[in-house]
Amino acid sequence: MYNVSTEQIIKVKAPKNSIIFKAVMIIACILAATTIPATNAFGIILFAVLVVFTVFVFRYYNAEYEYSFVDGEMTVDRIMARTRRRRCGVYDISKAELVAQVGSQDALRLEHRQLRTHDYTSNEGNESCVVIYTFNSNNELERIYIEPSEEMLNAFMECVSKQAYKVPDDFKPYTRRTENTK
C-alpha cells in the first residue's frame, strides 16, 4: 500500500497531583507499619495491602505512549511501568481530514466540532504537538493530539492527502528529552 512504517515512544510526564497521591500512600504505609505492634495480624494485612496499592500508584504514573505507524494506520499503546501494554486506539491516518499544528488556523477552524478527543502527548507543553482529525477502527471521526517525530511526520506526509496535511515546514517535531547525567 504505502510501504511506510515507523515507531516512536513518548515518555509521559506525571501530573502535579500525582505527587500528592504518592506522598499520601507513603505516609499511609509508614502509619500502618507503626501500628503493627498494637493491631497484630490486622496491622500486617493492612500494611501489605497498602504496600501493594502504593506500588500500583507508582507504576500508574510511570507511563509511556508508543505510536506505531504502518501502511497508513497508526496504533497507539500505553505502556505502564515498562511492563504492561494497553491498546489505546487504532486510527486510519490515510483517511485523515486534517493533520495540523495545535493552535494553527486550520486546527482552530475544526475545534468547535463535538468529537471524541484523545490526548497522547507527554504533558510537557504544546510546542511540538500535532492534532489529527481522522477515523478510528469503527469508522468514527476522532480528534487526536500526538507529539510526532520528524520521521513520523514524513510518513504522515506520504500517506495523507495534500489538502489535509497542514503542518508548516518550520515546525519543531518532538525530540527525545535527555536527562542530565551529571
E-strand count: 8
Shape: elongated
Helical segment tally?
5
- What is the mean predicted local confidence, pLDDT? 85
The portion of residues assigned to helices is 25-40%
| β-sheet strand percentage | 25-35%
Gyration radius over CA: 21 Å
Based on secondary structure, the structural category is: alpha+beta
| Element order: H for helix, E for strand | EHHHEEEEHEEEH
**Uncertain regions: pLDDT < 50 for 5+ in a row?**
178-182
Largest sheet: 8 strands, mixed
- Euclidean distance between termini CA atoms: 47 Å
Explain this structure.
The protein is α+β, with helices and mostly antiparallel strands. It is 32% helix and 30% strand. Strands 1, 2, 3, 4, 5, 6, 7 and 8 form an 8-stranded mixed beta sheet that branches. Helix 1 packs antiparallel against helix 3. It is elongated. The C terminus is likely disordered.
